[in-house]
Structure formats: structure tokens, C-alpha cells
Design goal:
The complex is a heterotrimer of chains A (291), B (397) and C (256).
Chain A (H helix, E strand, L loop, with lengths): L1 H31 L7 H16 L4 H24 L10 H21 L15 E3 L2 E3 L1 H23 L1 H11 L1 H5 L5 H27 L5 H16 L4 H21 L2 H18 L14
Antiparallel strand pairs in A: 1-2
Helix pairs in contact in A: 1-5, 1-6, 1-8, 1-9, 1-10, 2-3, 2-4, 2-8, 2-9, 3-8, 5-6, 5-8, 5-10, 6-8, 9-10, 9-11, 10-11
Chain B lengths: L1 H24 L3 E8 L6 H20 L9 E6 L4 H14 L2 E5 L4 H14 L3 E3 L5 H4 L8 E3 L4 H15 L5 E6 L2 H16 L6 E5 L7 H9 L4 E5 L2 H13 L5 E4 L7 H5 L7 E4 L9 H14 L10 H21 L4 H8 L4 E2 L4 E2 L20 E6 L2 E4 L10
Parallel strand pairs in B: 1-2, 1-3, 3-4, 4-5, 6-7, 6-8, 8-9, 9-10
Antiparallel strand pairs in B: 10-13, 11-12, 13-14
Helix pairs in contact in B: 2-12, 3-4, 6-7, 12-13
Chain C lengths: L7 E12 L2 E12 L3 E6 L5 H9 L6 E6 L2 E2 L5 H7 L1 E4 L11 H8 L8 H14 L1 H5 L10 H13 L5 E5 L7 H16 L3 E5 L3 H7 L2 E6 L2 E7 H6 L1 H7 L15
Parallel strand pairs in C: 3-8, 3-9, 6-7, 7-8
Antiparallel strand pairs in C: 1-2, 1-4, 4-5, 9-10
Helix pairs in contact in C: 3-6
Classes of the chains: A mainly alpha (291), B alpha/beta (397), C alpha/beta (256).
């Protein structure tokens, strides 16, 4: 029992990270029908820049704020120059290649500045493990899935109840129709990417005390987060969060009761299986692309 | 007619022989190549080798160089990628025509270089990458030498320390699921067997894993009180945190993957983790070491020795260059074949060990210069990786 | 007959639109005065929808000028023109099917929602009077309504941006004749209250019946233009669009 509980806690922690990354993909897709494949790098930038800020003596809150702002800027610039010119129609896919390329270049650049080591981001949330019914977990590890759920609820509220949220949905549905409402479609793209990247940067700062920050941290997190977004249905915010948390817990149980090696095999097999049955993801809606 | 034909044939054969044997007669340049990770996650490892090699070369050049020529270091980046390591080897040998190539940080790269090094016939002297098969590669003649640890011997060393430290005799092993970790597993098992024991648990983890609670729960439930670790700082940190979460603290003894920044990552949780090294720049330095440290410090603007990550590699590289230089002197020429032969005759008192001699032609195991009796145990304490005798855990040594 | 103001709201000169290698619009001149209801008719493929897309900014004109409120807006994007007071209800309506009726109305008032909230809310009430079913279905998914209801939603949405110039493309597509009648009457009433309208329509008879002035587009150019009633009586228009054929001589084989 205690062991199973341990796995649930650990699973929620890693699952929460996947969920946060997947939410970023959802936010971008839900407006632009395109994503930044290097979205994992937004997390990396947030974490790495926060640490570099602390290195030069900034108080942690200021370093974190600047790091999030920089991540936001990364998203906006990337959208403008690596996505928009390659996403002229809803069925263009050139942005896939350009964002992957940018991600690789960014990692190389950051490695030069930050060094190859993983470095910790201090936080009171990882000082002492809590003991809950015999299972150990860091408070920060529980905070992560909680934040993922909160962000998801916040985004859903924004989509349903604010002008800009409605406008983002409109742009995703039909760019021309949205423009005819007076919506500046390009600005909406920029906002969605900026928002997703800012969220990514903040997620990186939240997550770094647990995973450590390194120039490569975005790679695997981005990949798994993307897989989770696809499984959950990239069009559904609650869907990707549920998929993320579930995926994390399943991973841990497989690791616990079968083996570490089986973890990736079973994890991705489940992903493929889900997609065979639900090509739009578990909670997604069927997309109709106007050609 | 037949007379002319015969001399024509003879001439052709001689010409062909000359062509084929060409490289063996060519003079090489007074440069030492190195392929290591200058970028990427292990950049500190590449830097470590570079620092050590550079200082040794500077010192040797100050005294007039080797055979009247000044040495220089030609540094290439492989970022831990074996294909790049192979490419760099080719460049060092065929394009730069260096007299030798130093090894880098990654065992996977070292393994990839074995075939090419022996095909070309350029002496390779490893400085960090410790996989056993890099050196014990069944090639004859074998151009792969090493002034560094050997995983097989490291495994024995760790097991020996574990047996000493363990109170209930139950020892477990956790290792990374990579070429390096997987290569060590059979060595650890063999070392345990040699002591008449068996591991009570063997667990793996992947790079970037952040939680090993499943693995440590199984290790705890197996009753182990001593845990051998074969991984890198980043995962080592997650291991000690997972142990903390399940409130289990075995004695931990690790290979030198935990010689980087574990203390910084894990804070007080790292205290007491023992790490095998060939050398330590921390704690009290003897006079000879101090001189060299000060040169490194000056050249690279370092503040204190804790900034020398993977310091063993620095010391290894320093010794490796001196051994190579002595071999070139003995060979009397910048000639690959002759230098290789001469390496077996070199004796040297270095930073890490007394090499008497460095290599032994009769024993394929002895293409490795540093014997296990020179391995040292260091331990993390308050963020510093000190020789164990200088820590509160020194009593268990 | 209402008085036509001499204000020229929209002045299109030499409009040319090209899709790839094909010239869809080859030099169209068109003028709209304040308070007018302009009909733009023509065969399918003649280019009338392209003209209106070029004016509205959905498509960037290859050449030509689009003068609106004293500015040549040819190079501006669609959303800028909406801000300036030009609204287009596009072919196919393009309502946001996955969002609610209410969401669609809010989006119609996008350019005014934050600054003129109370004015917009009272205009919502006006829309509910005009189209009572909107209030009934307020929180229903817009895509679940019938074609006619969607078209009315689209008109309500278009009006909510308080356009100086309202353009409608193919109002009648896919709608039952009775609904088309209702909508045409609606447009005439709106125009009577002062709304300037440009109606691109394949049902020429309906359009000409309510319009003041008309343009006939053929092969990407303006073939005819003039007072709507006069044009409706012209033989060419009658034959081409109104289904009234000239008498022909019967041949020996019975061909007409």
C-alpha cells in the first residue's frame, strides 16, 4: 500500500510536468493550429535564466520574473520568424522543421553559456521530504500537478469568458472569419505563442528544483509533453492535463512493478494504441482541415 | 626480354611496397591530438583533460621540447558523439599528422576509436574513458594505451570497499542504462563472485530520470546496507533524494561519475557518498601538486580547486603527456611505430602514480598504466569532494 | 424612394485581383454612396465574389485603389477595415460553429466590446427584437442551427460592429426561398433606416428588386451599371439573369 502510494506521488509529480508542457502545446495549437516543437526549450530558458540571474546577484523573484519575460519573448520572436512565414495555410507544415531547428540551435547556444552541468535551482519546496502515510514526497513535487490543474482551469475560463479567449478560438476555427470580426490574426498568434512560452518558462522554474536545470532539459520533457498532448487530444485543455497525470502515474507503476526498461516501451506502446483507437486523442475533437 | 621483364617486376614490387609501407616511414608532427567533449553535457570532462595536457606541454616546452621540437595540443570537440570521435581521430592522424592522440571523456567514443586507431597505427593514450574493452581489445599490435582508471579494476575496487563498509554483507548495485553502466555490470558481478558473494539487488535508471523511488524501494526491501552507484551527478542527485524520500540511507560508494557537482545538487544529502578517483586536488596538497595547481589556476583564472571538475582527468592527462614525451625521446623520432614500442620502456614518477614501468608489453591488461593500488577513495562532505581521510567518514577506509 | 446623399463612401478604381496565374478581376470601378443599397450581380465565376473579397481585404488586390473614408485601403488587412467601419458577411456565413450564439455576437462586437460595453449590450437587445430566436438559442452551439438561422446570426454579427458600410456575399446560398424573401425584406428595412449596403448576389431578381443601383460583373469586369430598376428592364440583363428569353425562330429540326 505504502509502495503504491509512493508511486502515485512520484507519478503525479512527473505527470504534472508533462501536463504543464502539454498545456503549452494546447495553447499554441488552440489558436494557431501550429506549435513550437522546441517548446521544451521554453522551460529550459526559464530555469536556466533564473539560475543565471541568481548567479549575478539578482533576488530570486526578480530573476524568475525576468526569466519568464525572456521565455515569453522567445515565443513571440519564434512565432514571428520561424512559424508565421511557414504556416500560411492551415495545412502548412514547414513550421515543424523550423521550430525543431531553432530548438537545436538554442540548446547549443545555451550549453556554451551555461555549461554542460545540471545545476540546481534552490527552493524551500525541496528542502525536506514530507511523509504522507508512509510515502515520501517533496512539497514542490505536489505543487507541480496542482499548478497544472490551476493553469488548465484558468485557461479554460479565459477561453470561455474573455474577449481574447473567444478571439483565439475564432482564429483557430477560421482565420478569415476572425479577421472579418476585426481580430488581428497575427497579433493573436503572437499572443498565444507568447503566453504558451511564458507559461513554459514559469513551468521550468517550478520544475527545476526537482529535476535540476540543464541546457538539455527541454528535450525529453518536450517530447513526452508533446506525446501527452497528442494522447489527451491537443484541442482539449482538461484532456492534456488528465493524460499527463495519468501517463506519469502509469510510468511509475510500470517502473515499480515491472522494470525501468519496460517503462518507455509500455509508455509509448500505450500512446500508439490510444492513437489507433482515438486518432484525435482521448478528449480531442475531430479536426476538419479546409483545403 | 625476360631479364627486362624481371627487373620491371622487381621495380614495381618495390614501388608498391614503398607505397603501402609509406605511412610507416613518414615523420609525424610534434603535435598531440585530443578528441573530447568541449560542448554538451560533459564539457567539464573535456576541459579537465585539456587543462592537464596543456600544463604538461607548457612545462616540457619550457625545457626545450622533445627532440628539439616544441609540442602543441590540437583539440577537437566530439560532444560525446562516437562518429565525431572517429572523424577527429582521422583528422589528427592523417591531416594534422600528430605523433599521438589523447583519449577523451566518453567510453562510447573510446570504443568507437579502437578500430581506426589500430588500422592507422597511431598511438592513443586514454585520459578518462575507463571502459575495459577500450584497452583490452584483442588487437595485436595494440595501439590503445591508457593513463586512467579501468572499469574492471574500478569494479573490484568498489566491491572491495563495499565489503569493508558493509555490516550485514548485503550489497546492492544501481547503474545507468548506457554503454558505460551496462559495461560495468558484468565487472561488478565478477568482482562480487571473486569475493564469494552476490548482489542482493541490481537496478537501472535512465538519463534524466528524476525519481528512482521504485528502484530504491526494491533495494531497501532486499535488505542492502551498502549501495554501489555507477552513474553521473545529475542522476546521483535524484538517487540520494529518492533515498531520502523513502527514509533509507545505505552507505554509498560510487564510480567517478559522481565526481562533478553532486555536492552542489544534493546539498547535505550528498554527505558521506564515497567516490573513487585516481587523484584529488582538494584538501591538503603536497608541494609538487601545488605548483601545478597554481599554473592551472593562473592560466584559466580559477579561484579554488573545487572548480576543477573531474580533477582525476586533469592529473591523468598531465601524466599521460609526460609519459608520451618520454617515449618519443626514447624512440628518437616522431614515428608512430617506434613511439609505440618505446612506450613499453617508459618509467615515470607522476602525479597519480609511480609508473615502473607505465606499460607492459607481455600483458594485455597492462596497456593501462595506473594500477588499482593507486585508486583513491574520496567522499563528499559539505559540498566538497575530499580524500576520505580528511573527512569524518575516514574511519571506514 | 429615399434621397441619396452625395457622399461617396466607397470608391473603387481599377481593381485587379490575381490568383496565381489567373486574373479573376481585371479592372473594376465601383462607387457606393452613403445610404445606397448596391447590388452586384453576375454569373458564377464572373468575379463578383473576388471583387468583394478584394474590397474587404481578405485578398490583397494585385492593382487598383480602394478609397474608404478618404484613405486608400487597398493594402490594408481585413481586420483594419473592420476597425474603420467596413463589415463583410462572407459567402458561406463563416459563423464560429463550435462557439455559442452569444460568443458569436460578442465577436461581432469585437472592435467595440471593451470600450462601448453598455452600448453594445443595448444593441444586443435590438438584435433580439429583430431575431427573437437568437435569444432563445443564446447559449446553444452556433453550428447546430439551421442555415437560415445561421445567416440571420451572421447578419446580426455583422451589424454589431456598427459598420458604416455593410457588405454581404451570396446571402441566398443554400437557403429556402421563403427565408431568402424574409432576409431581402430585412435588408431593405435596414437600408431604409440608413444602413449603406452592398449586396453580392446570384439571385439577380431579388437583388435588383431592393437595390438602388447595380453593377453587372462579367469576365472580371463591369459590363453594365446603372439604376437598379432600369437595369432590371434591360434586355441583356433580362436574358442573362432573369430567365426571360428572347423569342427565337423555330428551325426545321425543332431547335429553339
Amino acid at each position: 500500500m505504502q509502495t503504491a502510494l509512493q508511486y502515485i506521488f512520484s507519478g503525479l509529480a512527473i505527470g504534472g510536468i508533462y501536463a504543464l508542457v502539454a498545456l503549452g502545446f494546447h495553447i499554441m495549437w488552440s489558436t494557431a493550429k501550429a506549435v513550437n516543437f522546441a517548446h521544451g526549450d521554453a522551460l529550459m530558458l526559464g530555469a536556466v535564466l533564473a539560475i543565471m540571474g541568481i548567479d549575478v546577484g539578482l533576488p530570486i523573484a526578480l530573476a524568475a520574473l525576468l526569466a519568464v519575460a525572456a521565455s515569453c519573448l522567445f515565443g513571440v520572436i519564434l512565432e514571428r520568424y520561424a512559424v508565421r512565414p511557414f504556416a500560411k495555410t492551415p495545412t502548412s507544415i514547414g513550421w515543424m522543421l523550423t521550430t525543431i531547428a531553432v530548438g537545436i540551435m538554442l540548446e547549443a547556444l545555451v550549453t556554451m553559456q551555461f555549461g554542460g552541468f545540471s545545476r540546481p535551482l534552490p527552493s524551500p519546496g525541496v528542502d525536506k521530504a514530507l511523509n504522507i502515510l508512509g510515502a515520501g514526497v517533496y512539497p514542490q513535487e505536489l505543487l507541480i500537478p496542482a499548478v497544472a490543474v490551476a493553469v488548465m482551469l484558468g485557461f479554460v475560463w479565459m477561453q470561455r469568458s474573455t474577449l481574447i479567449g473567444r478571439a483565439m478560438q475564432a482564429v483557430a476555427f477560421d482565420r478569415n472569419a476572425a479577421a472579418l470580426m476585426g481580430i488581428d490574426v497575427n497579433r493573436m498568434f503572437a499572443i498565444s505563442f507568447g503566453l504558451a512560452s511564458a507559461l513554459g518558462g514559469a513551468a521550468g522554474i517550478l520544475v527545476a528544483p526537482v529535476t535540476q536545470a540543464s541546457a538539455q532539459m527541454g528535450l525529453i520533457l518536450g517530447l513526452k509533453g508533446f506525446a501527452v498532448a497528442i494522447i489527451g487530444g491537443v484541442t482539449s485543455a482538461p484532456g492534456v492535463v488528465i493524460a499527463g497525470l495519468a501517463f506519469g502515474i502509469i510510468e511509475k507503476f510500470v517502473e515499480g512493478y515491472i522494470s525501468t526498461a519496460a517503462r518507455e516501451i509500455i509508455g509509448f506502446s500505450i500512446a500508439i494504441l490510444v492513437l489507433l483507437i482515438y486518432p484525435q486523442g482521448l478528449f480531442g475533437k475531430r479536426e476538419v482541415f479546409k483545403v | 626480354m625476360s631479364h627486362r621483364f624481371a627487373s620491371f617486376t622487381r621495380a614495381s614490387v618495390l614501388a608498391m611496397a614503398a607505397l603501402l609501407a609509406g605511412p610507416a616511414f613518414a615523420q609525424q608532427e610534434p603535435c598531440i591530438g585530443n578528441s573530447g567533449p568541449l560542448t554538451g553535457a560533459a564539457a567539464f570532462g573535456g576541459a579537465a583533460v585539456k587543462y592537464g595536457a596543456e600544463i604538461a606541454i607548457d612545462e616540457i616546452n619550457e625545457k626545450g621540447g622533445v627532440l628539439g621540437k616544441k609540442l602543441r595540443l590540437i583539440q577537437y570537440d566530439d560532444a560525446g558523439a562516437p562518429p565525431r570521435g572517429v572523424d577527429n581521430t582521422r583528422r589528427v592522424a592523417m591531416s594534422d599528422k600528430c605523433i599521438a592522440i589523447l583519449g577523451g571523456y566518453h567510453s562510447t567514443v573510446g570504443l568507437a576509436q579502437v578500430d581506426l586507431v589500430n588500422e592507422i597505427g597511431i598511438p592513443y593514450i586514454g585520459t578518462i574513458a575507463a571502459n575495459t574493452k577500450i584497452i583490452e581489445n584483442e588487437k595485436s599490435p595494440n595501439y590503445m594505451f591508457r593513463v586512467s582508471a579501468k572499469d574492471k579494476w574500478v569494479a573490484h575496487f568498489l566491491v572491495e570497499q563495499a565489503v569493508k563498509a558493509s555490516k550485514n554483507g548485503k550489497i546492492a548495485f544501481i547503474y545507468e542504462n548506457t554503454g558505460w553502466g551496462n559495461g560495468a555490470f558484468p565487472d561488478i558481478k565478477a568482482a562480487m563472485k571473486a569475493k564469494g558473494k552476490e548482489l542482493v539487488a541490481a537496478e537501472t535508471f535512465n538519463w534524466n530520470d528524476q525519481d528512482m523511488s521504485a528502484q530504491v524501494i526494491r533495494i531497501r526491501d532486499a535488505g542492502a546496507d551498502t549501495l554501489l552507484i555507477w552513474g553521473l551527478d545529475r542522476e546521483g542527485n535524484q538517487i540520494v533524494r529518492s533515498l531520502d524520500k523513502v527514509a533509507f540511507k545505505p552507505t554509498m560508494i560510487a564510480a567517478w561519475g559522481l565526481a562533478g557537482n553532486l555536492g552542489e545538487l544534493a546539498g547535505p544529502l550528498a554527505n558521506g557518498v564515497r567516490v573513487m578517483q585516481t587523484f584529488s586536488w582538494l584538501g591538503e596538497m603536497d608541494a609538487k601538486t601545488k605548483v601545478i595547481w597554481e599554473k592551472i589556476q593562473k592560466k584559466h583564472g580559477l579561484k579554488d580547486p573545487t572548480e576543477l571538475k573531474m580533477g582525476s582527468g586533469t592529473a591523468n592527462a598531465y601524466d599521460a603527456v609526460y609519459i608520451l614525451a618520454k617515449a618519443i625521446e626514447k624512440a628518437g623520432a616522431y614515428d608512430w611505430k617506434k613511439v609505440r614500442e618505446a612506450l613499453y620502456q617508459v618509467e615515470h614518477t607522476g602525479l597519480v602514480a609511480n609508473y615502473k614501468p607505465a606499460f607492459d608489453k607481455a600483458d594485455p591488461e597492462r596497456q593501462d598504466a595506473i594500477l588499482p593500488e593507486y585508486y583513491r577513495l574520496t567522499a563528499w562532505h559539505d559540498g566538497k569532494l575530499l580524500p576520505i581521510a580528511q573527512t569524518p567518514y575516514g574511519k571506514s577506509q | 424612394m429615399k434621397t441619396t446623399d452625395t457622399d461617396v463612401l466607397l470608391d473603387v478604381r481599377g481593381l485587379k485581383i490575381r490568383y496565381g496565374a489567373a486574373d479573376a478581376v481585371r479592372g473594376v470601378d465601383l462607387q457606393v454612396r452613403r445610404g445606397q443599397l448596391i447590388a452586384v450581380i453576375g454569373n458564377n465565376g464572373a468575379g463578383k465574389t473576388s471583387v468583394i473579397r478584394g474590397i474587404s481585404g481578405l485578398v490583397r488586390p494585385h492593382a487598383g485603389e480602394v478609397w474608404f473614408k478618404g484613405v486608400n485601403t487597398a493594402a490594408l488587412g481585413a481586420h483594419r477595415k473592420v476597425e474603420m467601419g467596413m463589415a463583410l458577411i462572407p459567402e458561406g456565413r463563416l459563423i464560429f460553429a463550435d462557439q455559442s450564439v452569444y460568443d458569436n455576437l460578442v465577436l461581432g462586437a469585437y472592435t467595440r466590446w471593451n470600450r462601448e460595453r453598455s452600448a453594445v449590450m443595448s444593441e444586443f437587445d435590438e438584435m433580439f427584437e429583430l431575431f427573437p430566436f437568437l435569444k432563445e438559442r443564446l447559449h446553444q452551439r452556433a453550428g447546430s442551427m439551421s442555415g437560415g438561422e445561421q445567416q440571420m446570426l451572421a447578419i446580426a454579427r455583422g451589424l454589431l460592429s456598427k459598420p458604416i458600410l455593410l457588405m454581404i456575399d451570396e446571402l441566398s446560398l443554400g437557403l429556402a426561398p421563403k427565408i431568402v424573401e424574409q432576409l431581402m425584406t430585412l435588408l431593405r428595412n435596414l437600408n431604409a433606416k440608413g444602413q449603406t449596403i452592398v449586396l453580392v448576389e446570384q439571385l439577380a431578381s431579388h437583388a435588383l428588386a431592393i437595390a438602388d443601383y447595380a453593377y453587372v460583373i462579367g469576365h472580371g469586369k463591369v459590363e453594365l451599371h446603372g439604376d437598379a430598376k432600369t437595369l432590371a428592364r434591360s434586355p441583356e440583363v433580362m436574358e442573362a439573369f432573369l430567365g426571360k428569353k428572347r423569342k427565337t425562330v423555330e428551325t426545321k429540326n425543332g431547335e429553339m
